[in-house]
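Residues determine shape. Next comes a sample protein:
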Amino acid sequence: MHTMTLPVPYYSLYFNKKAKSLAVAEAYTNQSKESKQRTFTQYMATAAPTPAAMATASQTPPFDHLKAIKAFEDTKMGVKGLVDSGITSIPPFFIFPPQTLSDLKPNPSARPDVNGIPTVDLSEKRPSVVSQIARACRELGFIQIVNHGIPLEVMDQTIEAVKGFHEQPPEMKAPLYGRSPGTGVNFFSNVDLFQSKAASWRDTLQVRLGPDPAPAVSHLPEICRNEIVEWNLAVKKLGEHLMELLCEGLGLDKGRLKEMMFLESRVMVGHYYPHCPQPDLTLGITSHTDPGVLTILMQSQIGGLQIKHGDDWVDVKPVPGALVINIGDILQILSNDEYKSVEHRVLANPCREPRTSVGVFFNSINRDGLFGPFPELTSPEKPAVYRQFVYMDYLQRFFTKELDGRSLKDFYRLKDTELV
C-alpha cells in the first residue's frame, strides 16, 4: 500500500481522554436526517437554556458543564452541526469569562508599524531576507512571506479542499471523529475540549504528515486527499528553507535545525470557523503559543488571527498569496530568547462566510533528546536562561494542559538565582 511520508500524532498523541459515548451517539450514524435533527435539538435544549429557562434558574438544576460537552462530543457533528441546527445563541460551555472577552478589539495605536505584521519577499537577495526575518522574529515572532515558491493555485485548492471536507454531510465526517491516534487522521472540535474552561468556536481536521509510520493515503478523506498530499510535499520543502534562514539569522550553521530532526515531525490542522451568532462571547481559538519549532499557516481571506504585542492585540490581516510564519516555544528556548514565541488567538467569526486555515507544525522526532539553549548562543555575559530537559517531558506537559495555560517556556525558564 502506498503511504505518504505523512510525527507521532501531535495534537492527539497525548490527548486520548475520549469521553464515553452516550447511548444516543451509539446509534447516531444509523439515524435518518430528521432523527439526527431531533437528537441535536434535544441536546441543544439541555446545553443551551432558553432565556425563559434562565429566568427560572433557581427552580431548575444547575448547568452541568461536563454533561453538556459530552453530549456535544457524542453528536460527532462539531460546531458546524450547531450552526446547521439553526441556533441563534451559543451553548453556555462556549462562553468565555469576562476577563478573557474584555480585549477582543485590537488597539489601533498598538500596531508595530503602519503595515502591521512585516511581509518578507523571499525572492530578494538572501542576506536581506535573513536580516528581515531575524529582526521580525526577535521583535514580533510573526511574519508573512510572499514569493515562497508555492503556487497560488495550490494554496487556493488546498483551502477549498479542507473547507469542502468540513462542509460535507455529518455522516461523511462522523467516522473520522475522535481523539485517539488511530490512523493519523482525525476530525474533532477543540483539542482541549475536556480540559478548557470554555470551548472555542471551530472544528478541526488533523493529519500527521510524518515521520513513518505514516497514514496510508487511502485513510485521507477523498474530498481533500490529493490536495493534502501535494501540500505536504510543498510545505516540507518550504519548511527546510525557512529553518535554514532562521539558523543563519542566529549565526548558526544553516542545517542545525534539520540535523536535530525538526523537519521530519509534522502535523497539519485544517481549522474551520463557521459563522458565530454571538462572536462577542467566545473565541475561535483561545490565546496560546505553539510548542514546536516553527509553524507555517495558510489562511483564507476572512480575518480573525491576532498576536499579542506588549499588552495589546494586533491583527494579522490576510495578504493574498502570503503565508504566515511564527516561532514556537522550543525555538525561543533553543535561541536563548533571541527569537520570540508570542501568544496568538483567533476571534470567533462574525461573517456568514466561514474562515478556513491550514497550519503545519514542525517538531523534532528525537523524543528522548536533551534540549536547551544552543551553546553557541550562551556566554558569561549572556548565560543560558533555560534549563535542559528531555523533549518527551516537554511534549507530555503540553498535551496535558489546556491551550490557554502557562507557556512551557516559562516552566523551563531558570530563576535569577539559578543563572550561571
DSSP finds 14 helices and 14 strands in the chain. The two ends are 54 Å apart (CA to CA). The longest strand covers residues 265-273.
